[in-house]
Amino acid sequence: MTSFAVLLLAYTLSQFFRAFLAVVSGDLTRDLGLDQGQLGSLQAAWLIAFALSQFPVGYALDRIGPRRTLAGFLLVAVAGTVIFGLSQSYAMALTALALIGIGCAPILMAGFYLAARLYSPRHFATMSSLLIGFGSIGDPLSGAPLAYFLAAYGWRATVFGLAGIVALTAVLVTLLLKDPPPLLGSSTQRHASLLSGIWQMMTKRSLWLIFPFTFVSYGVTISMRGLWIAPYLQTVHGFDLAATSYAAMAMGGAIGLGALLVLPLYRRIGAKPTVVACAVAVAAAFFALALWGTGSSRLAVGLFLVIGLFGVTYAVVMAHARAFMSPQEIGRGVTFMNFVFMGGAGVMQWLSGRLVNTLGRHGYDAPVTFGWLFVFMGVVLAAALAVYMISPAEPKAAPPAAR
Fold first, then answer.
1. Which DSSP string do the residues of 338-401 spell out, in sequence order?
2. Which among 73, 319, 337, 351 is placed 20 to 30 Å from 295, CA to CA?
3. 154 φ, ψ to 5°?
4. How far apart, in whole angstroms, are the C-alpha atoms of residue 232 and residue 352?
5. How confident is the model at residue 189 (pLDDT cuts 50, 70, 90)?
6. 237 — phi, psi (to 5°)?
7. Which of 35, 18, 36, 8 is nearest to 370 (CA)?
8. pLDDT attached to residue 328
9. Closest Cα to residue 83, out of 156, 19, 151?
10. The pTM is what?
11. Do 248 and 125 meet the contact criterion of CB atoms below 8 Å apart?
């Protein structure tokens, strides 16, 4: 229980950092002279660095365990947070966000690793959903509470305070997180298993139809919450910082609530039907935003809440993919899936920033620009869902002789 509490604190910080740019974006635009494309690149840097770090994270988890892995990476996040608070240029801020992304990379995977080692397969989705659901409180904390500290102390002092919290978390991880019993086998064997495990995931045909949805689904939701909800509400509906922060906090709360509410649905109808139903709701919300969002701020906020509530089926997609992994592949498999999730999220952030900038250069106003952004998100999600729908729901049963 102590280990879960420590992981929950760390994951709360991870959720905070992947969403806080939406509220601090105005300060960065003013003080560093960033445009919308550069803001998108900052968020993309966090996610891409996070994704690329999954491979060394998988290696470290097997070689030295989650306690030392997580504590060491969190020190990188401390350095990145301090550099971000000192940033005077786009390049410096970009470097800082990448370091924070690297530092947060092992947090969720440490939880998945412990769940896979300590719990039966049928409890994997339950433990993952609980960690994601309760840890998602970090998302609403990056809304109105962050806005309060920004207004009271300024963004740089607030960021330095965050660096202290991350450092404290690293200390708690070192003192309180417990490693599972070591696996049998030499370090050489484990290293070989890491390399072969990555290749096995890339060549596992049963996962090929799941990968596109994995690449897109989390990215479209976190792009809205982490980057675009604030600029949209401020430029299209005239929200001030306080109103924007409350809307962002509400969407973050919807994400956390959705991660918990999807669990009973998953238990009742299974992984694939749950994912399909949620994705249809999210795609419909994007198209509704494009068509009618500019006409009513209440409708727009309500549709953002729909995207948050149904848009993070992370644990259920992971459970679906895990069904096709042997026990020997689970550690590398969930790490590789996380790479696909976060790499896709980074690409979606970058593409959305390029799209908004391009439309702006061609003279489109904010309502039209964001309308096309929502259409883009809806179309990409719908295309990935179409591929996912023909994926196998579960592994084929082995013949009796093979069993």
1. HHHHHHHHHHHHHHHHHHHHHHHHTT--HHHHHHHHHHHHHHHHHHHHHHHTTS-SSPPPPPTT
2. 351
3. 90, 160
4. 13
5. very low
6. -115, 0
7. 36
8. 62
9. 156
10. 0.75
11. no
Encoded tokens for 370: 């964001």
Buried b (16+ CB within 10 A) or exposed e, 40-79: bbbbbbbbbbbbbbbbbbbbbbbeebbbbbbbbbbebbbb
∠78-79-80 over CA atoms, to 5°? 90
Q: Take residue 177 and report the two structure tokens written for it.
A: 């997180």
Residue 171 CA to residue 329 CA, distance in Å, equals 31
**Cα 83 from Cα 40, distance rounded (Å):** 19
Q: Token pair of 3, please? A: 């280990």
Fill in the amino acid letter for 372: W
- Nearest CA to 131 out of 214, 249, 14 is that of 14
Query: In 219-255, which positions are buried (b, 16+ CB within 10 angstroms) versus exposed (e)?
Result: bbbbbbbbbbbbbbbbebbebebebbbbbbbbbbbbb
> What are 191-203's pLDDT values in tens digits?
445 566 567 778 8
Spell out the domains of the chain, with CATH numbers in brackets. Answer: 2-177+190-388 (1.20.1250.20)
Cα 352 from Cα 349, distance rounded (Å): 5
SS (H, E, C) 101-125: HHHHCHHHHHHHHHHHHHCCHHHHH
- Residue 274 token pair: 């749950």
Tally helices (H) and strands (E) across the chain: 20, 0
Of 4, 361, 39, nearest in space to 231 by CA: 39
Residue keyed to tokens 């430029």 = 235
Q: Cα–chain-centroid distance for residue 159? A: 20
**pLDDT tens digit sequence for 164-175:** 999 999 999 999
State both tokens at 60.
């470290």
